[in-house]
Design goal:
The protein has about 290 residues and is an alpha/beta fold. The protein is built from 14 helices and 9 strands. It folds into 2 domains: about 190 residues, Rossmann fold (3-Layer(aba) Sandwich), CATH 3.40.50.150; about 80 residues, Helicase, Ruva Protein, domain 3 (Orthogonal Bundle), CATH 1.10.8. Bound molecules: S-adenosylmethionine (SAM). The site of S-adenosylmethionine has 24 residues, from strand 1, helix 3 and strand 3.
């Protein structure tokens, strides 16, 4: 009976019953039970997105897996919990036999990621940041569920209260947009906070950085001192950014920028400042 259901129509509560286990919040298991929400999620991929291979992280009972199988040629789902991975293999045996579904039992932070063309996931919240930053460099469209507060920080623009390290780092890779806020009543068990779906469309940033790793570390360092001026933040965080000579960077940087605070520095300005830091802040800076 379960195997003959057409993709896209499985009932969330029935899937949880068949999985034989309720979600355990200690293992990030908040399952979507509002099928109006689940039905909308694949539609947040843009029309132009390549749906030949969609990756899902954290399949759980499989309600989103089911909806993705209705729109993708192939789905790969990664699930860490052995009970739910076994359930997914059983529930979607037909799709596996037809070579339309791959179930990877493992930790999404450790397994090799497949060569997917898009990723759509209701992420495990305690690892959502790390997972997102594994996905962002893949250069594919992402539709990801996060805690609302995290999502707001991710999409914030310079000058907004939520603008910070997360905004600059995520927007380095993609245009980020909240496409739907999701109440906690859409999940079982209910998380304590609201959630939000974010669409992340890959694109090159409007600036170039010679050393991406340093740029991201520098931004992280400066935002640890977000109440300080950029001048003091550069000086106080050399142990994080790894600068040998923070004073030389301050001497070389733009005076106006040095007097501002991180929350008012746009990503392109951070990129220019990071370039100044690379050119002046290391012992071998002038050695070519
Ligand atoms: C928020 S639930 C989403 C389940 C399902 N997709 C849904 O929307 O109802 C997150 C799922 O990720 C799994 N999970 C937690 N940490 C994981 C990890 N590090 N790697 C892979 N799966 C993980 C949990 O077991 C759980 O099934």
């Amino acid at each position: 009976m379960t195997r003959s259901e057409s993709p896209g129509s499985r009932d969330p509560d029935a899937l949880i019953r068949r999985a034989g286990d309720r979600g355990n919040p200690d293992f990030d298991q908040h399952f979507l039970v509002d099928d109006r929400v689940v039905d909308r999620i694949p539609g947040y991929l843009p029309d132009t997105a390549d749906r030949s291979h969609i990756l899902e992280i954290g399949g759980g009972p499989g309600v989103l897996t089911d909806r993705l199988l209705a729109v993708a040629d192939h789905v790969t789902v990664i699930e860490r919990d052995p009970t739910f991975a076994a359930h997914l293999r059983e529930e979607f045996a037909d799709a596996i036999d037809a070579d339309r579904l791959t179930v990877i039992e493992g930790d999404a932070l450790e397994v090799d990621l497949p060569d997917a063309t898009a990723c759509v996931s209701n992420l495990p919240y305690s690892a959502s940041s790390e997972i997102a930053f594994r996905l962002l460099p893949l250069d594919i469209p992402l539709v990801l569920m996060f805690q609302q507060e995290f999502a707001e920080r991710m999409v914030a623009a310079v000058g907004e209260d939520d603008y910070g390290r997360l905004s600059v780092s995520a927007q380095h890779y993609a245009d980020c947009e909240i496409v739907e806020s999701v109440p906690n009543t859409a999940f079982d068990p209910q998380p304590a906070v609201q959630s939000a779906l974010v669409r992340l469309m890959p694109r090159k940033p409007e600036y170039t950085v010679a050393d991406e790793e340093f740029f991201l570390r520098f931004v992280k360092a400066i935002f640890t001192q977000r109440r300080k001026t950029i001048r003091n933040a550069i000086r106080n965080t050399a142990h994080i950014s790894g600068l040998d000579d923070a004073d030389a960077v301050v001497d070389a940087a733009d005076e106006d920028l040095l007097g501002r605070r991180a929350g008012n520095v746009a990503p392109a300005e951070f990129a220019a400042l990071a370039q100044t830091a690379v050119e002046h802040g290391f012992d071998d800076s002038d050695d070519g």
